[in-house]
């Protein structure tokens, strides 16, 4: 790698765009370019520009006070500029490093408003990216890439820690220090993240456990509720369909009875029609006809009484069933019922008395009137009983008894009427022997009619009983549906639709206790908010995420610690090797410059406590990478490499302390050390800014020879007034400053200049 060109625009005295092109490496040499010019011409601004584009942040090192000082400030004849830009082009076609790029263009811009940017090959980059890239290319923005005249004495006067920074870059470990510093920062960050994550886990873990228990209860509740729902469906389904089956059976039976009743009623009508025909064909006496009519009326009224008697009993039974379901019945006051029953009973007594003594037509009419009165009383009482019956609940037994007695007496009256009817029949036979046959036929039809009416009566009685039973089933189904509305509000249609097959084989008496046990279990579990599930899910996800993150952080921590340990091994190995070889070169170049003597670097180690004392006293200025390394070594209890001392003994002297050397001796010692570093770990290029200013002519010649020797591996840009240094340059750049305060360049190859001189 070598420096191909530098483009400067708006930087300090270089107002207009200025391009410095450097020769390609040829033969065994990478070349030396000399930049010359009078004091104040701006030639050192070239060194500052290179230092600045490489990322220098110290304005002191750039000979300024604030950032905008590097921007051309203008002059009497030229306006100031709004920005400064320096671009450095590196040719990496030889790929003698691990950078794949063939050409590397590093640029830096600064505007007067303070905005700045770095670019690598036209793309915006961070300073850290540039620093790491330069470290991989074996040079950086500090130390020996750009060596100014002040650095010569500064190396000797620097603290051991400052020399360590210079040495580390020379040892080529800056890249690993940066990586180690990044790893240490990552390690600290990982530990902080682990601590935070662990704190959060400890904070939410009790909540997760509590919510987990609640969710398990909710799951148990759902299982029990599901089992209960399934059992209730079977239970209510079986009950519902059993009741439905009963109602269907009763419906079929009712249809059959209705058919029987219709047949009986048809037979009754047929007999009545035959009697009607017989009546028209018979020539009877007025008395006999009247007697027959009276007889028929008594028979009809007797039948009517029987029907009313039967309906009354059926109605009472139906009202009793419905009253039990509603449990709220209103009726007539008990005294009124008792009074009416008493009146009916008295009428019945009177009816019995007259029936026993009746022998004539008039007496039979009286019996008929009494029967009608009893029937009407029974009908009135029946209508009263149809009203709500809740108020008679306390006297229900007494009313039932009275009503039963009244009905019994009615039945007795009917029986007596039957007896007297027979007696009337005998009396009627005595009226006319001639009509005996007709009478016989008439009474035969009467008996048939009586039989038909009894069949009608029995059919109606069965039908009424069936209606009572249907009322019971319907009431039970209504009650069952109300229960299902409460217990199974969302499954009623399903339950009514079709019972489950296994439910048909189960006993409802066994299912009901099981249902009660499941309900009790639900009560013991208690009510749980379903939002707990969502909260548990969210909290558990957070808990699991943090747990996984902690595990990942542990792995990252182990990997980072392992990487740091590996980097520490690399750093120590390279430092030891660099110290050994640099000391060898240091001794050689020292002897070459001094014609004898010896010099070496001595490592200085300190404890962690001593390091803190030095830092508190502002005597140790290590960068963040070195501090991180030192802190880690101190944490492990290892001695900390604090820096390097320089021991130099010129020929013929016993002096080891460089502080008592003369100015020239210190300068040559520094030059020897710099040359030793360049010999061990050559940078792609080095800028020497008037480092030979303090050397006399003979020492300048020796220094120029050393630079010429080192140019085989390093490209040199030498800013100098010294003829010896100029003589080694292959290209000379002359810097002048015009009246407008702008630096200008003039370049010439040395061999061309020599030809022109000749």
From TrEMBL:
Keywords: Coiled coil. InterPro entries: P-loop_NTPase, RecF/RecN/SMC_N. Residues 2-743 form the RecF/RecN/SMC N-terminal domain. Residues 612-623 have a biased composition (Acidic residues). Residues 288-315, 449-483, 536-570 form a coiled coil. Residues 611-636 are annotated as: Disordered. Residues 624-636 have a biased composition (Basic and acidic residues). Pfam families: SMC_N (PF02463). PANTHER family: STRUCTURAL MAINTENANCE OF CHROMOSOMES PROTEIN 3 (PTHR43977). This is Chromosome partition protein Smc. It comes from Candidatus Magasanikbacteria bacterium GW2011_GWA2_45_39.
């Amino acid at each position: 790698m070598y420096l191909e060109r530098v483009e400067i625009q708006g930087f300090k005295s270089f107002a207009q765009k200025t391009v410095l092109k450097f020769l390609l490496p040829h033969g065994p040499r990478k070349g030396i370019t000399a930049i010359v010019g009078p004091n104040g011409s701006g030639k050192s601004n070239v060194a500052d520009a290179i230092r600045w584009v490489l990322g220098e942040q110290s304005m002191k090192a750039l000979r300024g006070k604030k950032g905008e000082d590097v921007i051309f400030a203008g002059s009497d004849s030229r306006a100031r500029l709004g920005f400064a830009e320096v671009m450095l082009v590196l040719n990496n076609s030889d790929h003698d490093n691990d950078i794949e790029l063939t050409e590397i263009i590093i640029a830096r811009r600064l505007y007067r408003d303070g905005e700045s940017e770095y670019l690598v090959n036209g793309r915006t980059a961070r300073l850290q990216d540039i620093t790491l890239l330069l470290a991989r290319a074996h040079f950086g923005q500090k130390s020996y890439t750009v060596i100014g005249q002040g650095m010569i004495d500064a190396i000797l006067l620097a603290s051991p820690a400052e020399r360590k920074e210079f040495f580390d870059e020379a040892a080529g470990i800056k890249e690993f220090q940066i990586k180690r510093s990044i790893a240490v920062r990552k390690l600290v960050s990982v530990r902080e993240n682990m601590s935070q994550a662990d704190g959060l886990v400890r904070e939410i873990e009790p909540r997760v456990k509590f919510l987990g228990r609640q969710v398990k209860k909710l799951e148990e509740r759902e299982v029990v509720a599901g089992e209960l729902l399934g059992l209730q469906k079977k239970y209510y389904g079986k009950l519902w369909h059993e009741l439905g089956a009963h109602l269907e059976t009763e419906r079929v039976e009712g249809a059959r009875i209705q058919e029987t009743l219709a047949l009986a009623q048809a037979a009754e009508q047929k007999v009545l029609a035959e009697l009607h025909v017989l009546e028209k064909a018979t020539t009877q006496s007025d008395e006999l006809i009247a007697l027959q009519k009276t007889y028929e009326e008594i028979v009809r009224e007797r039948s009517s009484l029987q029907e009313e008697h039967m309906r009354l009993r059926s109605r009472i039974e139906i009202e009793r069933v419905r009253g039990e379901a509603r449990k709220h019945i209103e009726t007539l006051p008990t005294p009124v019922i008792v009074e009416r029953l008493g009146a009916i009973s008295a009428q019945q007594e009177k009816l019995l008395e007259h029936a026993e003594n009746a022998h004539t037509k008039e007496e039979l009419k009286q019996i008929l009137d009494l029967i009608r009165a009893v029937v009407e009383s029974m009908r009135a009482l029946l209508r009263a009983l149809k009203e709500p019956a809740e108020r008679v609940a306390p006297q229900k037994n007494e009313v039932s008894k009275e009503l039963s007695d009244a009905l019994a007496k009615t039945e007795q009256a009917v029986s007596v009427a039957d007896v007297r009817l027979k007696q009337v029949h005998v009396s009627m036979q005595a009226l006319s022997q001639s009509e005996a046959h007709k009478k016989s036929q008439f009474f035969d039809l009467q008996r048939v009619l009586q039989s038909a009416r009894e069949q009608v009566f029995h059919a109606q009685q069965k039908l009424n009983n069936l209606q009572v039973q249907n009322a019971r089933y319907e009431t039970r189904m209504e009650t069952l549906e109300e229960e299902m509305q409460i217990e199974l509000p969302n499954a009623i249609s399903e339950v009514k639709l079709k019972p489950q097959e296994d439910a048909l084989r189960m006993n409802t008496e066994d299912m009901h206790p099981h249902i009660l046990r499941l309900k009790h279990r639900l009560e013991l579990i208690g009510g749980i908010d379903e939002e707990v599930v969502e909260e548990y899910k969210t909290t558990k996800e957070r808990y699991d995420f943090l747990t996984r993150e902690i595990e990942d952080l542990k792995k990252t921590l182990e990997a980072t610690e392992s990487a740091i340990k590996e980097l520490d091994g690399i750093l120590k190995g390279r430092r030891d090797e660099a110290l050994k070889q640099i000391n060898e070169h240091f001794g050689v170049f020292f002897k070459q410059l001094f014609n004898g003597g010896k010099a070496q670097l001595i490592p200085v180690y300190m404890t962690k406590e001593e390091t803190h004392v030095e830092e508190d006293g502002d005597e140790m200025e290590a960068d963040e990478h070195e501090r991180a390394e030192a802190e880690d070594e101190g944490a492990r209890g290892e001695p900390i490499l604090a820096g390097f001392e320089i021991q130099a003994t010129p020929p013929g002297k016993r002096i080891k302390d460089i502080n008592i050397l003369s100015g020239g001796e210190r300068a040559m010692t520094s030059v020897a050390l710099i040359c030793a570093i360049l010999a061990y770990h050559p940078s792609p290029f080095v800028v020497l800014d008037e480092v030979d200013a303090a050397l006399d002519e003979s020492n300048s010649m020796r220094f120029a020879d050393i630079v010429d020797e080192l140019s085989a591996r390093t490209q040199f840009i030498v800013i100098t007034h010294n003829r010896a240094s100029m003589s080694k340059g292959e290209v000379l750049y002359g810097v002048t400053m015009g009246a407008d305060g702008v630096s200008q360049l003039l370049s010439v190859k040395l061999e061309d200049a020599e030809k022109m001189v000749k």
